[in-house]
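We append the chain.
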Amino acid sequence: MRPVFNTIHLFTNRFCICFSKIFGCTTTTFLFFLLVSFNSSSAQRTNEVDALFEHYKTRDTPGIAVSVIKDGKVIYEKGFGMANLEYEIPIKKNTKFHVASLAKQFTAFMILKLEDEGLLSIDDDVRTYIPELPDYGHTITLRHLLTHSSGLRGQWRLLEMAGWRLDDVIKTEQIFKLLKNQKELNFTPGDRFMYCNSGFTLLAIVVERLTGTSFANYAKQTIFDPLQMGDSFFYDDHEEIMRNRAYSYKKVDQQLKKSNLNFATVGPTSLFTTVEDMSKWAINFKKMTVGNKAIFQSMNQKAKKNDGSVVSYAKGQFVREYKGHKMIYHSGSDAGYRSYFARFPDLGYQFILFANASYINAYDEIFKVIDYYLEDTSPENKSATPPNEEFVYDEDIFIHLTTAELKKFEGVYYDREAKHYREIEIENDSLFYKREDGTGTKLHPVGKSNFKMVGTAYDISINFKKNDFEEPILEFRIPDIMWLWLIKVKKVNISDYLGIYYNDELGAQYELVEKDEELFLTHLKLDDIKVTQINDAYFCSDNRNFSNIRFKRNTSGEIVEFSVSNDGVKNITFLRR
């Protein structure tokens, strides 16, 4: 390094002498000029980033903390808004935030560190370490847990369906009891990617059993102490007093309220840290004070499914491209806490943002900063955006269907994803697709049950078919862009469905009742859940846990059970009592 330094030093001296001769100033003056210019530019950049978060510079709003790292050095770090509204305590760079799912990369690191030390293999069966788990007939490996491909049911949906509120005191022991009690998987391990916090709870248990110490203590010994992250820890005791803590808020009818969090469960969540400490973790990905190249390569490697296809999730992190650059990132969301951590390894940039209100969109806020710093790094896009022209069909593909042939498609169809209805209706011997705002688009037949929607910029197909339950559906398809299906609505006798339903895996009982001509699922501890009937088997709800409900009859035609599917649980069954 010394010869290179000497060369640079010699070049600088010669340049300064040359500059001073040309402009008639001393070398000292020139160096002062360079320093002032640099500081002025740096101050301007700081002011411009500050301006992005001007709306948090009050004493009556929660806020954010932000850190930007470039080539291993923190170049921006600041807090905006209030950590505590009741005592008007501002957010600073050493304010502690609950960062929710950012905890997962720390859990992944600890598992990979244990593998590096020869204490486990991530291809081991999880039941090697946790034999209490059911044998589902398929091996679930630690790799499956790390990559959200285990097929395990999601712990938060299970807890809520069992009657818990997410602001209850929730401990690892209670989650573990629920997981041990589950009789089925959502899918065969490795077949799919389905985000699952349950897997990371089990990984934390594996760490504790192998190390003989608490997960929080092992993290302190192996990560936080060596990196001098003195304000970081896994919060496994909900009663522990914490200084410099950001409290959690939400808005209800535009009024700010507390959003309480009483987690005492670790692995997928419950990491408290500061942007100042998190910056040290960010820098460690390259500096490797803890860990090594093999561990971080494994953390950054995208997962593969059983069919060989690659997903965007690695281990505790997602991997994708942004503006032509590789981005490794993760977000977090619990109660009113929001967090985002993004790394651009090829550019040397890392970005951290924490927030303490549920209405703050961490993605939008951090990408203001990312776009600011990456403005001059995006590859030039020389291709012009094509005009939004109407998609033109060859008229020869259209056929004629009689009104009688079109009649069977008439009706109301429900989109379970967007939670809206569409009506198919005949007007002037043609079929029309009608929206809730009253607008309609003519459907042109190209087959006995296949139509094209003319007059848009896309090739839109509307196909009438049946689903796996032999129920009429409308398939809406745009090649390579969108595919969804809407189920045909059919009214039924509601009284056939009323009654009490029980699930032994959750130890939970619900009653389906009718009040003021509307249906509700009721539970002793939870608010009533409004349910909408779609056809004789399919019901739905805006409640995320009961978004898809399917009733089943016996051979006598009596309702005997319903099954529930949501974003974390598939086909969990409640039997009628």
DSSP finds twelve helices and 31 strands in the chain. The longest strand covers residues 325-334. The CA atoms of residues 155 and 198 lie 5 Å apart.
